Write the C-alpha cells for this entry.
Amino acid sequence: MTDFQYIGKKASRPDGPDKAAGKAHYIHDLQRPGMLYGKIKFSDHPHAWIKHIDTSKAERLAGVRAVITANNTPEIRIGFLRDNFALKKDKVRQYRDEIAAVAAIDPETAEEAVELIQVEYESLPGVFCPHEAMKEGSPLIHETDSQARPRTDNLVPLKFHHESGDLESGKRAAKFIAEGEFSTPMVQQCCMGTAGCIAEFDMNSNLTVWAKTQIPFLAQRDFNRALSDMGLPDKNTRIIVPTLGGAFGSGLDTHAYEYIAILLAYQTSSPVKIVYTRAEEFANLSPRQSSTTKIIQGCDQNGKLTFRHVEVLQDNGAYTSWGATYPSVMMIPATSLYRVSNVYFNARSVYTNNTYCQAMRGYGNPEHTWALESNMDELAKEAGIDPFEFRIMNRNEPDETTPMGLKVSTCGLKECLETVARKLDWKKKKNTKGKRSGKGMASLIHVGGGARIYRSDASGLTLKLDDFGNVNVFHGGVEMGQGLHSVLILAVAEALGVKPEKVLINPTDTGTCPWDVGTHASRGAFMACNTAILAANKLRSQIFELAEEVFPKEVEKNLKKFMKKNPGYKPPDFDVLKSAKRERFELCDGFIFIKDGPQESWLRMELGKLLRAIHFRSQGQMLTTEVFYDPPNELPDFERGFGNISATYAYGTQGAEVEVDTETGEVKILRMVAAHDVGKVLNSQGLKGQIYGALAQGVGYALYEKLQSQQGKILNPNFRDYKIPTVQEMNFPIDLEFIETNDSYGPFGAKGVAEPGLVPTAPAIANAIYDAVGVRIRDLPITPEKILAALKKSRTSKD
Amino acid sequence: MEGDVRMEIAFILNSSEVTVTVDGHRRLIDVLREQLGQTGTKEGCGEGECGSCTVIIDGRAVNSCLYPALEVEGKSVTTIEGLLGPKNELSIIQQAFVEQGAIQCGFCTPGMIMSAKALLDSNPNPSEEDIRDALLGNFCRCTGYVQIVEAVKEAAAQLKGKQ
C-alpha cells in the first residue's frame, strides 16, 4: 500500500481558528451598504383561494420601501416540477405559502409591515394524510400541472419502480416470511445557522446572491431563469457562498424566500436580506419527508434470502422539491443491501396540504434502511437464526453486480459486521429472562462515488500557482461544516507535492470557480479530491516541463552561492543539464529536485523560486490549470430501477446496547459501535466528526425527533418542543472503526462518508430494544409512550 | 419603536469601558451585534434554547438573546471576541476546540466556548459530568458533542498545566 505524507493523518480544519474566534462570517453577519430587510407574509390557511390581498396599510408604514405580491410582480415558477411559485396568486396549498413580502429599513419595520397585510381567503377542504390524499374524491391540491394540463389526482408524477428475478418463485422458495409496515416522521435539518440570503443588483441588472446553498451552479441556473421571467433574459446571477451554519440537505433546492429577496432587490434597487428566525425555519423550511414502507422478505430454510417486496408511500406536501426523488436512493438498499435475487420495489409520492418536504442527509436511505433492517431482524427470528449470522450469510461481496445493476467494486460489509459483533461482545448476548438490556445491529449501503441523479455528476477544479509558491484552489463544492476544505487541502498537498499550509482554498463563487453539480450524496470529498489529483498531475507535468530549461540555470546560481559559503566544497560529479529531464523531476513538500540525483541542498529548489524564474523572464508564464471530472457512473432508468448510479458504494454496520425501563418506557443507550467501510481515511479527525455527528442525528431520528403537524400546521416550531440530542442524550461511548478497502475509484482509495453515519442508527437501536424487552416498534421516533403501549399489548396478548 | 425608552448605558465589554445608547426593548445580543459590531455572538433561536448566543456576564454564562440590554449597566460582559490574547492569538480553550476537531459548521462554537470558559473559570478540575452539565444548554447539530467534550477536557488539562 502507498505511504502517504498527509493523507490519513489527523488534520485541523483551515477555518477552525476563525470559527473559534467568532470571525467566520455567516449570512447573519453579512451587511451590504444600503441594505434593506425583507420579511414574508405567509398563509393563514392550509388550503384556500386567495380572494383579496390588501397591502395599503403596510405600504404607508414609515420605513417600508416595497410591498410585493403576485399581483405586482412577474410570475416566477420554481421547484423540481415547477409546481410552486415564488409568490402565490390564486391559491394557497400549505400554511407556509408566501403571499406577500416587504422590504424595509430594519427588521422590526419589516415585521410590523407584514402584520399589516390583510388577506381574504375562501377556505377549501384540506387533505393532510397521504393515504387519504390518494383516495378518489380527495381535495385536489393542484388542479393543473406546470404545463397547464388538468390533473385528476394527487399523485406526484414521478415513477420509481424496480422488478428483478421472479418474485413468485422467490415466495415459493421461502420457508420463512416476515412482513411489516414501518413509518418515519417529518424531521427538520435543524441547522444551527438558520436559512437566509442577500440579493443585490448592479446597475447593469446583473444579480449577486449570497446564498446558503449546496448547489451554487444549479442555483445560478434557477435564478437566471427567474431573471428571464422578470424581463431580464440576458442577465446573469453570481452566487457567493458565505460560511454556512450547517446545511444537511436543506440547501439542495432554491427556495421561495430567495426569489422573493431577488424581486424585492430589483424593485427597490437596493440589496435585500432575508434571514429566517428559528420559528420561521421550523415552520417554513422544508423538512425531511415522512414515509410509510411496507416490506415483506422471505428466506429458505438455510436462511438465504429468496425475495424482497417493498412498497413506499411518501407525503410530498404541497409542492415538489428534489427531495421527491428520495426513492432513487431508497432503491439502492431495497435492491442491493444483502444478496437477494427476486425483488419488487415501488415508491409513490403524494401531494397533501402539509408543508412540502426536501432533502435531508441520507436522502431516503435512513427511511428505507429503517424498514429493511428492522425486518431483517424479524425474519431472522422467524427462521430461528442469530441476526448477526443471518446478515453474514446474506452479505454482499466485492465485485458483485446487484439486481439494480450496481457494480460493487470494494465491499467491506463482512468486516463491518464482524467488527461490530466483536466490539459489542455479540456472543455474550444472552436471552436471559427478565433482563432489560439488549443489543442490536443494522447495516447500510450508500452511494460512495458520486450519485448521478442529474445529467451531469461532474465537478471542476482550478489550481492557480502564484509567485510565492502558494496553490490557490477554486472549487465549486460547498463547505458547510463537514470538512470538505480540510480534505481538499490534504489532497492537493499530497498529489502536487507541497505543504498543506501553502494550499489556499478560495470562497465558493460561481464567478470564479468551475462548475460543480452540488455538494450532496456524500460526493463532496470523493469528487473534490479526485478532481484535485487530476489537476495536480496536470500541473506537475507543466512544472516539470518548464523546469527543464529553468532548473539548471537556477541550480548553477545556487551552487555558486553554496561554494562561496563553503570554500573547498567539491560538488559531486553530476551533469545537471543532462539530468534535468521532465520524467526525472520530483516535487515534494514544496521543493523540486532530481529524483535520482545527489541529495545536495543546492540541487533542491523551492517551488516559489522556480515559479518566479518561469514568470519573470521574456515570454514568461504563470501556471494555472483546470480540470473537469465526471465520475464513471450512470444515470439510472428510475422507472425500471436499473443503473449503476455511483462509481463505488459505502458500507457500514452500527451496533447498539440499550437499557429499557419497563416502568417508564425510557430507553438509555449504554454504548454504540460503528464500523464503516470508508475506502480510505483521508483526515482521521474530520472523518470521526462526520460519523459522530451523523450518528447523533440518527439517535435523534430513532428516539426523539418529530415535526408535529396538525391540519398542516407545525405545532412544535422551537427547540423546546422539537427535541434534538443534546450533550446529555449523547452521553454514551461511541466506538468507531474504519474499514479501509482502498477503492480503485476513490481518491487515494476513499469513498464518500458524509451520510452513512445516520443511515443504520435507528434500526440498530430498535433491534436492541427488541432484544431487551421483546417489543418491536415500527414507527419512529421510538418514544417511551410507544414502548409502554407495546409492552402493555404484549402482556395482554400473553395473558 | 414608538414610545420606546432610549437610554445611555455604560458597561465593560471585553475589558474596555463602552457607552452606548440603546432602545429599551433591545436585547443584549442586538446591541452587541448591531450597535457594537461584535458579530461573534450568534443567534440560533432567539428563545434561550440553543445557547449559540452565550456570553459571560460577571462570571456567569448567559443567553444574550434573553438578556435585556439595559440590565448590563455597570456589569462586565465577555464575548468570544474578548478571548483572544494580547497578540490576537487564540486562547487555550479556543485552540483546544480547533485541535480536537470540536468545530464543524462553527455556528454553535462561540457560545459553546463561552460556556466552557465560564465552567473552567469557576471549576478548574471539572469531571466529565461537570462538563456535560455546563454544555447542556448549548446545542450542536454537527459533531455529536464527542470532540467538544474532549476539547474541554484538553483545555482544562492545559490550563492546569499552566498554573
